[in-house]
Write a structure and sequence with these properties.
By secondary structure, this protein is mainly alpha-helical. The chain is 66% helix and 0% strand.
Length: 107
């Protein structure tokens, strides 16, 4: 339930935010995305947080997908840093996250 009430709304907010930000705030937004992207990659490569508290089962079922999420967030950060309001990358990432949630028991 935390996934649908916490993770997905936050990710949708992050994906839609560039459409409403002033130009000078877009670069600040890119730093936030860089931090998120690097943290996904750090967790992936170090194998950290494998028992995430936000998981209803206690198991971090999304751990194998952190590399994909990290790279997509870094791509979105680069677009934002260069002043491009490309929100499709993070909406795609959110959609993939929802799809993986439905498929997680079969992967």
């Amino acid at each position: 339930m935390e996934f649908w009430l916490g993770c997905i709304p936050v990710r949708l907010l992050l994906a839609g935010l560039p459409m409403y930000l002033e130009d000078e705030m877009l670069q600040v937004y890119s730093y936030v995305l860089f931090a998120i992207g690097f943290s996904f990659l750090y967790l992936y490569f170090t194998g950290s947080r494998m028992n995430a508290f936000e998981s209803s089962t206690g198991n971090t079922w999304w751990a194998p997908w952190r590399i994909m999420h990290g790279l997509l967030y870094l791509m979105a950060a680069m677009y934002a840093y260069n002043g491009q309001r490309n929100t499709s990358i993070l909406f795609f990432d959110t959609f993939i996250g929802m799809l993986l949630w439905f498929l997680k028991d079969n992967l």
